[in-house]
Amino acid sequence: MKAVRRPVPVLIVACLFLAVGIIGAVYHIRDLRQPDGISIEFTEALAILAGAFMLRGSNWARWLALAWMAFHVGLSIFADRRELAVHALIFAGIAWLLFLPESRRYFGTARSTPE
């Protein structure tokens, strides 16, 4: 069986989500004592989940990553304009990387194919 090669753009985004999720979870662990602490850790777990399953080629993980980033863009609406702009640019960059032709092929094919 021939394994499908993971494109570099997918690797970059998946590793980014894994890093943000892990670092965020460790950083926010002390917030569990606050009322919204569990929801913060839950969002960090979603980032880790998206990153891990994007590495495995799961198409739903690509959509979870975009939804996760869109959620942060939405939260930025209530912050200053600079934060909103940064999150919107990051969202656009991630969407672009995940929908490049090579990324679409990776998420659209089986993980292994017979030779």
**Helicity level, as a percent range?**
over 70%
Shape: globular
Strand order of the largest sheet: 1-2
Q: How many domains make up the coordinates? A: 1
- Major pleated sheet: 2 strands, antiparallel
How many helical elements?
5
Structure commentary:
The chain is built from five helices and two strands; from the N terminus they run βαααααβ. It is globular, with a radius of gyration of 16 Å. The protein has one domain (2-110). 18% of the residues are buried. It has a two-stranded antiparallel ribbon. The mean pLDDT is 89. The protein is mainly alpha-helical. α3 (59-76) packs antiparallel against α4 (81-98). The longest helix has 20 residues, at 8-27.
Give the SSE layout.
Layout: E1 2-3, H1 8-27, H2 37-55, H3 59-76, H4 81-98, H5 101-108, E2 112-113
Antiparallel strand pairs: 1-2
List the main descriptive attributes of the protein structure presented here:
two-stranded antiparallel sheet; 115 residues; mainly alpha; 5 helices; 72% helix; 3% strand; globular
Describe the structure concisely for a colleague.
This protein has helices at 8-27, 37-55, 59-76, 81-98, 101-108, and strands at 2-3, 112-113.
